[in-house]
Amino acid sequence: MGLQREISQFDLTSIIVGAIVGADIYIASALTAGLVGPFSIVLWVVAGLFAITLAMIFAYCSYYTPRVGGPFAYVSEALDDFYGFLAGWSMWVAELLALPVFAIAFTNYLQTLVPLTPAAGVTVRAAFVVSLTLVNIVGVRAAGRLNDVLTLIKLFPLLLLIIAGFGIFILRPEMLIGNYTPLLPLGLENISHALVLIFWAYAGFEMGTLPAGEVQDPQKAIPRAIISGILIVALFYLSTNFVLFGLVNWTQLEQNPVPLVTAGTILFGSIGALIMTVGALFSVAGSDESGMLGSARLAYAMAIDGLFPRAFAKVHPNYGTPYVALIVQGVLAFVLSNIGNLPGMISFAVFNLAFSFLLTCFSLIVLRSDRATSLRGQRILPLAGIAICLFLLFSTTTFDKVAGALVVLAGIPVYLYYSPKADMRHLKDLFLSEEAVLLRRLEAKETYLANFLNLIHRILRWTRG
Protein backbone atom coordinates (compact mmCIF):
# COMPACT_ATOMS: atom_id res chain seq x y z
CA MET A 1 0.00 0.00 0.00
CA GLY A 2 1.53 3.33 -1.06
CA LEU A 3 1.35 6.78 0.45
CA GLN A 4 -1.74 8.81 -0.43
CA ARG A 5 -1.45 12.11 -2.33
CA GLU A 6 -3.62 14.33 -0.15
CA ILE A 7 -1.38 17.35 0.56
CA SER A 8 -2.22 20.45 -1.48
CA GLN A 9 0.19 23.27 -2.33
CA PHE A 10 -1.42 25.42 0.37
CA ASP A 11 -1.01 22.60 2.91
CA LEU A 12 2.63 22.17 1.93
CA THR A 13 3.34 25.90 2.19
CA SER A 14 1.72 25.83 5.62
CA ILE A 15 3.87 22.82 6.60
CA ILE A 16 7.02 24.68 5.57
CA VAL A 17 6.07 27.88 7.39
CA GLY A 18 4.97 25.83 10.38
CA ALA A 19 8.21 23.86 10.43
CA ILE A 20 10.35 27.01 10.32
CA VAL A 21 8.46 29.30 12.70
CA GLY A 22 8.83 27.53 16.02
CA ALA A 23 10.43 28.14 19.37
CA ASP A 24 13.47 29.68 17.67
CA ILE A 25 11.94 33.10 17.03
CA TYR A 26 10.95 33.22 20.71
CA ILE A 27 14.47 32.50 22.07
CA ALA A 28 17.11 33.11 19.37
CA SER A 29 16.93 36.89 19.64
CA ALA A 30 17.96 36.80 23.30
CA LEU A 31 20.86 34.45 22.55
CA THR A 32 22.25 36.63 19.78
CA ALA A 33 21.68 39.87 21.70
CA GLY A 34 24.34 38.73 24.15
CA LEU A 35 26.75 38.00 21.30
CA VAL A 36 26.44 40.94 18.90
CA GLY A 37 23.80 43.30 20.33
CA PRO A 38 21.32 45.01 17.96
CA PHE A 39 23.61 44.07 15.04
CA SER A 40 21.62 40.83 15.22
CA ILE A 41 19.09 42.39 12.82
CA VAL A 42 21.79 42.43 10.12
CA LEU A 43 22.56 38.77 10.77
CA TRP A 44 18.87 37.91 10.48
CA VAL A 45 19.04 39.37 6.97
CA VAL A 46 22.20 37.40 6.14
CA ALA A 47 20.79 34.15 7.54
CA GLY A 48 17.60 34.78 5.56
CA LEU A 49 19.63 35.09 2.35
CA PHE A 50 21.42 31.85 3.26
CA ALA A 51 18.08 30.11 3.78
CA ILE A 52 16.55 31.49 0.57
CA THR A 53 19.57 30.31 -1.43
CA LEU A 54 19.42 26.81 0.01
CA ALA A 55 15.62 26.73 -0.32
CA MET A 56 15.96 27.55 -4.03
CA ILE A 57 18.41 24.67 -4.40
CA PHE A 58 15.94 22.33 -2.71
CA ALA A 59 13.14 23.65 -4.92
CA TYR A 60 15.14 23.00 -8.09
CA CYS A 61 16.17 19.54 -6.91
CA SER A 62 12.53 18.71 -6.20
CA TYR A 63 11.66 19.84 -9.73
CA TYR A 64 14.04 17.24 -11.17
CA THR A 65 13.33 14.56 -8.54
CA PRO A 66 9.76 15.02 -7.26
CA ARG A 67 9.65 11.96 -5.02
CA VAL A 68 9.53 11.26 -1.31
CA GLY A 69 12.78 11.52 0.65
CA GLY A 70 14.09 15.05 0.07
CA PRO A 71 17.91 15.19 0.17
CA PHE A 72 18.13 11.40 0.25
CA ALA A 73 16.19 11.18 -3.02
CA TYR A 74 18.10 14.01 -4.72
CA VAL A 75 21.57 12.84 -3.80
CA SER A 76 20.77 9.19 -4.59
CA GLU A 77 19.49 10.21 -8.03
CA ALA A 78 22.44 12.50 -8.77
CA LEU A 79 25.29 10.49 -7.29
CA ASP A 80 24.47 7.04 -5.85
CA ASP A 81 22.80 5.32 -2.93
CA PHE A 82 25.87 5.63 -0.69
CA TYR A 83 26.01 9.42 -0.78
CA GLY A 84 22.22 9.52 -0.76
CA PHE A 85 22.22 7.50 2.42
CA LEU A 86 24.74 9.82 4.08
CA ALA A 87 22.58 12.83 3.15
CA GLY A 88 19.44 11.16 4.48
CA TRP A 89 21.21 9.81 7.55
CA SER A 90 22.59 13.24 8.53
CA MET A 91 19.25 14.94 7.99
CA TRP A 92 17.38 12.26 9.92
CA VAL A 93 19.75 12.69 12.88
CA ALA A 94 19.30 16.48 12.73
CA GLU A 95 15.51 16.31 12.50
CA LEU A 96 15.38 13.68 15.24
CA LEU A 97 17.28 16.05 17.54
CA ALA A 98 14.85 18.85 16.72
CA LEU A 99 11.81 16.94 18.00
CA PRO A 100 12.88 16.82 21.68
CA VAL A 101 13.99 20.47 21.45
CA PHE A 102 10.39 21.48 20.79
CA ALA A 103 9.07 19.23 23.56
CA ILE A 104 11.44 20.91 26.04
CA ALA A 105 10.59 24.40 24.76
CA PHE A 106 6.85 23.72 25.01
CA THR A 107 7.21 22.65 28.63
CA ASN A 108 9.38 25.68 29.47
CA TYR A 109 6.85 28.13 28.01
CA LEU A 110 3.96 26.36 29.70
CA GLN A 111 5.70 26.88 33.03
CA THR A 112 5.30 30.65 32.61
CA LEU A 113 1.54 30.08 32.86
CA VAL A 114 1.30 27.02 35.10
CA PRO A 115 4.06 26.05 37.60
CA LEU A 116 5.14 22.46 36.96
CA THR A 117 6.90 19.97 39.21
CA PRO A 118 9.65 17.82 37.62
CA ALA A 119 7.23 14.88 37.40
CA ALA A 120 4.57 17.09 35.81
CA GLY A 121 7.14 18.34 33.30
CA VAL A 122 7.87 14.76 32.23
CA THR A 123 4.13 14.13 31.89
CA VAL A 124 3.66 17.25 29.75
CA ARG A 125 6.52 16.26 27.43
CA ALA A 126 5.08 12.76 27.09
CA ALA A 127 1.58 14.06 26.33
CA PHE A 128 3.01 16.56 23.85
CA VAL A 129 4.93 13.92 21.87
CA VAL A 130 2.17 11.29 22.02
CA SER A 131 -0.60 13.63 20.86
CA LEU A 132 1.29 14.89 17.82
CA THR A 133 2.44 11.37 16.93
CA LEU A 134 -1.17 10.16 16.96
CA VAL A 135 -2.25 13.05 14.72
CA ASN A 136 0.34 12.01 12.13
CA ILE A 137 -0.62 8.33 12.36
CA VAL A 138 -4.33 8.99 11.90
CA GLY A 139 -3.66 10.53 8.53
CA VAL A 140 -1.57 12.94 6.52
CA ARG A 141 -4.66 14.99 5.65
CA ALA A 142 -5.44 15.40 9.34
CA ALA A 143 -1.82 16.34 10.00
CA GLY A 144 -1.81 18.83 7.14
CA ARG A 145 -5.08 20.46 8.26
CA LEU A 146 -3.91 20.66 11.89
CA ASN A 147 -0.70 22.32 10.72
CA ASP A 148 -2.72 24.85 8.67
CA VAL A 149 -4.60 25.87 11.83
CA LEU A 150 -1.50 25.92 14.03
CA THR A 151 0.42 28.01 11.49
CA LEU A 152 -2.30 30.66 11.27
CA ILE A 153 -2.59 30.80 15.07
CA LYS A 154 1.15 31.06 15.63
CA LEU A 155 1.58 33.91 13.12
CA PHE A 156 -1.17 36.07 14.64
CA PRO A 157 0.79 37.18 17.77
CA LEU A 158 3.81 38.02 15.62
CA LEU A 159 1.65 40.04 13.23
CA LEU A 160 0.08 41.87 16.17
CA LEU A 161 3.52 42.65 17.60
CA ILE A 162 4.78 43.93 14.24
CA ILE A 163 1.82 46.25 13.60
CA ALA A 164 1.80 47.69 17.12
CA GLY A 165 5.58 48.02 17.14
CA PHE A 166 5.73 50.01 13.91
CA GLY A 167 2.95 52.21 15.28
CA ILE A 168 4.99 52.96 18.40
CA PHE A 169 8.06 53.81 16.31
CA ILE A 170 6.07 56.35 14.29
CA LEU A 171 4.95 58.04 17.49
CA ARG A 172 8.26 57.67 19.35
CA PRO A 173 11.16 57.42 16.86
CA GLU A 174 13.64 58.29 19.63
CA MET A 175 12.94 54.88 21.21
CA LEU A 176 13.93 53.11 17.99
CA ILE A 177 17.08 55.18 17.51
CA GLY A 178 18.14 54.89 21.14
CA ASN A 179 17.87 51.10 21.29
CA TYR A 180 19.73 50.65 17.99
CA THR A 181 22.62 52.88 19.12
CA PRO A 182 25.35 51.66 19.09
CA LEU A 183 24.57 49.07 16.42
CA LEU A 184 27.57 46.83 17.17
CA PRO A 185 28.49 47.29 20.85
CA LEU A 186 30.31 43.96 21.27
CA GLY A 187 32.48 43.87 18.14
CA LEU A 188 32.69 41.23 15.42
CA GLU A 189 34.22 38.36 17.38
CA ASN A 190 31.01 36.34 17.87
CA ILE A 191 29.37 36.99 14.50
CA SER A 192 29.86 33.50 13.03
CA HIS A 193 28.51 31.79 16.16
CA ALA A 194 25.51 34.12 16.26
CA LEU A 195 24.85 33.48 12.58
CA VAL A 196 24.74 29.71 13.20
CA LEU A 197 22.15 30.19 15.96
CA ILE A 198 20.04 32.46 13.76
CA PHE A 199 20.26 30.10 10.79
CA TRP A 200 18.74 27.39 12.97
CA ALA A 201 15.65 29.59 13.24
CA TYR A 202 15.30 29.45 9.43
CA ALA A 203 15.87 25.70 9.21
CA GLY A 204 12.75 23.71 8.34
CA PHE A 205 12.23 24.54 4.66
CA GLU A 206 13.74 21.15 3.84
CA MET A 207 10.75 19.46 5.50
CA GLY A 208 8.53 20.49 2.59
CA THR A 209 10.40 18.14 0.25
CA LEU A 210 10.12 15.05 2.45
CA PRO A 211 6.41 14.13 2.01
CA ALA A 212 6.62 14.46 -1.80
CA GLY A 213 4.89 11.10 -2.27
CA GLU A 214 1.75 12.61 -0.71
CA VAL A 215 1.75 15.97 -2.52
CA GLN A 216 -0.65 16.75 -5.35
CA ASP A 217 1.29 17.65 -8.55
CA PRO A 218 4.64 17.61 -6.68
CA GLN A 219 6.81 18.88 -9.57
CA LYS A 220 5.02 22.23 -9.51
CA ALA A 221 3.68 22.38 -5.97
CA ILE A 222 6.92 21.66 -4.07
CA PRO A 223 9.12 24.41 -5.62
CA ARG A 224 6.33 26.99 -5.32
CA ALA A 225 5.60 26.02 -1.72
CA ILE A 226 9.27 26.14 -0.70
CA ILE A 227 9.92 29.56 -2.22
CA SER A 228 6.69 31.15 -0.98
CA GLY A 229 7.11 29.58 2.46
CA ILE A 230 10.65 30.84 3.03
CA LEU A 231 9.74 34.34 1.82
CA ILE A 232 6.80 34.51 4.25
CA VAL A 233 9.03 33.40 7.11
CA ALA A 234 11.83 35.83 6.21
CA LEU A 235 9.36 38.73 6.17
CA PHE A 236 7.98 37.81 9.60
CA TYR A 237 11.41 37.17 11.12
CA LEU A 238 12.93 40.44 9.95
CA SER A 239 9.90 42.50 10.96
CA THR A 240 9.62 40.80 14.35
CA ASN A 241 13.28 41.27 15.23
CA PHE A 242 13.33 44.85 13.96
CA VAL A 243 10.47 45.65 16.33
CA LEU A 244 11.94 43.63 19.20
CA PHE A 245 15.35 45.33 19.20
CA GLY A 246 13.64 48.69 18.77
CA LEU A 247 11.38 48.13 21.79
CA VAL A 248 13.80 46.44 24.20
CA ASN A 249 17.43 47.42 24.73
CA TRP A 250 19.87 44.63 23.90
CA THR A 251 21.26 44.66 27.44
CA GLN A 252 17.83 43.63 28.70
CA LEU A 253 17.36 41.04 25.97
CA GLU A 254 20.72 39.43 26.79
CA GLN A 255 19.46 37.95 30.06
CA ASN A 256 15.85 37.42 28.95
CA PRO A 257 14.66 33.85 28.29
CA VAL A 258 11.31 35.09 26.90
CA PRO A 259 12.14 38.22 24.85
CA LEU A 260 8.90 38.44 22.87
CA VAL A 261 6.87 38.15 26.05
CA THR A 262 8.75 41.20 27.32
CA ALA A 263 8.02 43.06 24.08
CA GLY A 264 4.34 42.12 24.31
CA THR A 265 4.23 43.44 27.87
CA ILE A 266 5.67 46.79 26.76
CA LEU A 267 3.03 47.14 24.04
CA PHE A 268 -0.09 45.70 25.69
CA GLY A 269 0.69 45.03 29.34
CA SER A 270 -0.19 41.69 30.97
CA ILE A 271 -2.59 40.77 28.16
CA GLY A 272 0.30 41.18 25.71
CA ALA A 273 2.44 38.81 27.76
CA LEU A 274 -0.38 36.25 27.73
CA ILE A 275 -0.85 36.54 23.95
CA MET A 276 2.85 36.04 23.28
CA THR A 277 3.09 33.08 25.64
CA VAL A 278 0.11 31.33 24.08
CA GLY A 279 1.51 32.14 20.64
CA ALA A 280 4.80 30.52 21.64
CA LEU A 281 3.01 27.34 22.75
CA PHE A 282 1.15 27.06 19.44
CA SER A 283 4.32 27.93 17.55
CA VAL A 284 6.30 25.16 19.19
CA ALA A 285 3.48 22.64 18.70
CA GLY A 286 3.18 23.55 15.03
CA SER A 287 6.90 23.12 14.42
CA ASP A 288 7.04 19.73 16.10
CA GLU A 289 3.99 18.54 14.16
CA SER A 290 5.66 19.58 10.89
CA GLY A 291 8.93 17.99 11.95
CA MET A 292 7.27 14.66 12.72
CA LEU A 293 5.47 14.70 9.40
CA GLY A 294 8.66 15.25 7.41
CA SER A 295 11.22 13.16 9.29
CA ALA A 296 8.97 10.08 9.29
CA ARG A 297 8.73 10.32 5.49
CA LEU A 298 12.51 10.51 5.26
CA ALA A 299 12.88 7.31 7.27
CA TYR A 300 10.16 5.73 5.10
CA ALA A 301 11.98 6.68 1.88
CA MET A 302 15.27 5.22 3.09
CA ALA A 303 13.56 2.04 4.28
CA ILE A 304 11.82 1.32 0.96
CA ASP A 305 15.22 1.59 -0.74
CA GLY A 306 16.54 -1.07 1.64
CA LEU A 307 18.86 1.29 3.52
CA PHE A 308 16.94 1.46 6.82
CA PRO A 309 15.13 -1.19 8.90
CA ARG A 310 12.32 -2.65 6.83
CA ALA A 311 9.80 -1.94 9.59
CA PHE A 312 10.16 1.80 8.86
CA ALA A 313 8.56 1.18 5.46
CA LYS A 314 5.38 -0.27 6.96
CA VAL A 315 2.29 1.77 6.06
CA HIS A 316 -0.81 1.65 8.25
CA PRO A 317 -3.52 -0.40 6.47
CA ASN A 318 -6.29 2.04 7.38
CA TYR A 319 -4.61 5.45 7.48
CA GLY A 320 -1.91 5.01 4.83
CA THR A 321 0.86 6.55 6.99
CA PRO A 322 4.32 5.18 7.99
CA TYR A 323 3.21 4.47 11.55
CA VAL A 324 6.26 2.47 12.69
CA ALA A 325 8.63 5.32 11.78
CA LEU A 326 6.34 7.77 13.58
CA ILE A 327 6.20 5.66 16.74
CA VAL A 328 9.97 5.06 16.83
CA GLN A 329 10.84 8.73 16.41
CA GLY A 330 8.20 9.66 19.00
CA VAL A 331 9.78 7.34 21.57
CA LEU A 332 13.27 8.66 20.82
CA ALA A 333 12.06 12.26 21.02
CA PHE A 334 10.52 11.68 24.44
CA VAL A 335 13.69 10.01 25.78
CA LEU A 336 15.97 12.77 24.46
CA SER A 337 13.66 15.47 25.83
CA ASN A 338 14.38 14.16 29.33
CA ILE A 339 18.16 13.75 29.06
CA GLY A 340 19.28 16.39 26.52
CA ASN A 341 19.80 20.15 26.71
CA LEU A 342 18.60 22.79 24.25
CA PRO A 343 21.87 24.51 23.24
CA GLY A 344 23.75 21.25 22.70
CA MET A 345 21.05 19.61 20.57
CA ILE A 346 20.50 22.75 18.48
CA SER A 347 24.18 23.26 17.73
CA PHE A 348 24.75 19.60 16.85
CA ALA A 349 21.65 19.56 14.65
CA VAL A 350 22.99 22.52 12.62
CA PHE A 351 26.19 20.61 11.84
CA ASN A 352 24.25 17.60 10.57
CA LEU A 353 21.87 19.76 8.55
CA ALA A 354 24.75 21.63 6.94
CA PHE A 355 26.38 18.35 5.89
CA SER A 356 23.14 17.09 4.34
CA PHE A 357 22.59 20.45 2.61
CA LEU A 358 26.14 20.33 1.25
CA LEU A 359 25.51 17.01 -0.50
CA THR A 360 22.22 18.38 -1.82
CA CYS A 361 24.05 21.35 -3.38
CA PHE A 362 26.39 18.95 -5.15
CA SER A 363 23.43 16.94 -6.41
CA LEU A 364 21.90 19.95 -8.19
CA ILE A 365 25.10 20.31 -10.21
CA VAL A 366 24.47 16.84 -11.60
CA LEU A 367 20.68 16.99 -11.86
CA ARG A 368 20.35 20.36 -13.58
CA SER A 369 19.40 20.49 -17.26
CA ASP A 370 19.87 23.39 -19.66
CA ARG A 371 16.51 22.49 -21.17
CA ALA A 372 14.76 23.69 -18.01
CA THR A 373 15.08 27.33 -19.01
CA SER A 374 12.46 28.45 -16.47
CA LEU A 375 14.81 27.60 -13.59
CA ARG A 376 17.10 30.60 -13.34
CA GLY A 377 20.46 30.59 -11.60
CA GLN A 378 21.05 26.85 -11.85
CA ARG A 379 24.77 27.33 -12.40
CA ILE A 380 25.55 29.78 -9.61
CA LEU A 381 23.10 28.61 -6.92
CA PRO A 382 24.80 25.29 -6.08
CA LEU A 383 28.20 26.98 -5.84
CA ALA A 384 26.77 29.62 -3.48
CA GLY A 385 25.06 26.87 -1.49
CA ILE A 386 28.33 24.93 -1.14
CA ALA A 387 30.05 28.04 0.23
CA ILE A 388 27.21 28.63 2.71
CA CYS A 389 27.26 25.03 3.96
CA LEU A 390 31.03 25.04 4.42
CA PHE A 391 30.75 28.28 6.40
CA LEU A 392 28.11 26.76 8.68
CA LEU A 393 30.14 23.59 9.19
CA PHE A 394 33.29 25.48 10.15
CA SER A 395 31.37 27.92 12.36
CA THR A 396 30.11 25.20 14.71
CA THR A 397 31.99 24.22 17.87
CA THR A 398 34.91 21.80 17.92
CA PHE A 399 32.74 19.28 19.76
CA ASP A 400 30.10 19.48 17.03
CA LYS A 401 32.71 18.92 14.33
CA VAL A 402 34.18 15.86 16.05
CA ALA A 403 30.84 14.37 17.11
CA GLY A 404 29.30 15.17 13.72
CA ALA A 405 32.12 13.44 11.87
CA LEU A 406 31.68 10.39 14.11
CA VAL A 407 27.94 10.33 13.37
CA VAL A 408 28.61 10.44 9.63
CA LEU A 409 31.15 7.62 9.97
CA ALA A 410 28.69 5.64 12.09
CA GLY A 411 26.28 5.76 9.17
CA ILE A 412 28.68 3.78 6.94
CA PRO A 413 28.29 0.41 8.74
CA VAL A 414 24.53 1.02 8.85
CA TYR A 415 24.58 1.46 5.07
CA LEU A 416 26.72 -1.62 4.54
CA TYR A 417 24.40 -3.72 6.70
CA TYR A 418 21.14 -2.62 5.11
CA SER A 419 22.28 -2.12 1.50
CA PRO A 420 21.23 -4.82 -1.00
CA LYS A 421 23.22 -8.04 -0.64
CA ALA A 422 24.02 -7.99 -4.38
CA ASP A 423 26.04 -4.83 -3.80
CA MET A 424 27.90 -6.51 -0.93
CA ARG A 425 28.91 -9.45 -3.17
CA HIS A 426 30.00 -6.94 -5.80
CA LEU A 427 32.26 -5.22 -3.29
CA LYS A 428 33.68 -8.58 -2.21
CA ASP A 429 34.58 -9.45 -5.82
CA LEU A 430 36.34 -6.11 -6.19
CA PHE A 431 38.49 -6.80 -3.16
CA LEU A 432 39.38 -10.36 -4.18
CA SER A 433 40.37 -9.73 -7.78
CA GLU A 434 42.95 -7.14 -8.90
CA GLU A 435 41.87 -7.64 -12.49
CA ALA A 436 38.28 -7.01 -11.53
CA VAL A 437 39.32 -3.88 -9.64
CA LEU A 438 41.14 -2.48 -12.68
CA LEU A 439 38.34 -3.40 -15.07
CA ARG A 440 35.65 -1.92 -12.88
CA ARG A 441 37.59 1.31 -12.36
CA LEU A 442 37.95 1.73 -16.12
CA GLU A 443 34.31 0.98 -16.92
CA ALA A 444 32.28 2.00 -13.88
CA LYS A 445 30.10 5.09 -13.96
CA GLU A 446 28.37 4.46 -10.67
CA THR A 447 31.27 3.96 -8.25
CA TYR A 448 31.53 6.44 -5.41
CA LEU A 449 34.93 7.79 -6.49
CA ALA A 450 33.93 8.07 -10.13
CA ASN A 451 30.89 10.10 -9.20
CA PHE A 452 32.97 12.36 -6.99
CA LEU A 453 35.62 12.95 -9.66
CA ASN A 454 32.92 13.54 -12.25
CA LEU A 455 31.39 16.13 -9.94
CA ILE A 456 34.72 17.94 -9.50
CA HIS A 457 35.16 17.91 -13.27
CA ARG A 458 31.74 19.50 -13.78
CA ILE A 459 32.49 22.23 -11.23
CA LEU A 460 35.85 23.08 -12.84
CA ARG A 461 34.31 23.12 -16.31
CA TRP A 462 31.48 25.47 -15.26
CA THR A 463 33.78 27.81 -13.34
CA ARG A 464 36.02 28.14 -16.39
CA GLY A 465 33.02 28.65 -18.67
UniProtKB/TrEMBL annotation:
Keywords: Cell membrane, Membrane, Transmembrane, Transmembrane helix
GO molecular function: transmembrane transporter activity
InterPro entries: AA/rel_permease1, APC_superfamily
Ranges in a coiled coil: none
Signal peptide stretch: none
Gene Ontology CC terms: plasma membrane
Keyword rRNA processing belongs to the record: no
Major subcellular site: membrane
Segments traversing the membrane: 12-35, 41-61, 82-107, 119-140, 152-171, 191-213, 225-248, 260-285, 320-339, 345-367, 379-396, 402-418
Gene3D superfamilies cross-referenced by the UniProt entry: Amino acid/polyamine transporter I
Localization in the cell: Cell membrane
Pfam families xref list: AA_permease_2
Topology in membrane: Multi-pass membrane protein
PANTHER family from the UniProt entry: AMINO ACID TRANSPORTER-RELATED, MEMBRANE PROTEIN
Protein name: Amino acid transporter
Source organism (scientific name): Methanoculleus thermophilus
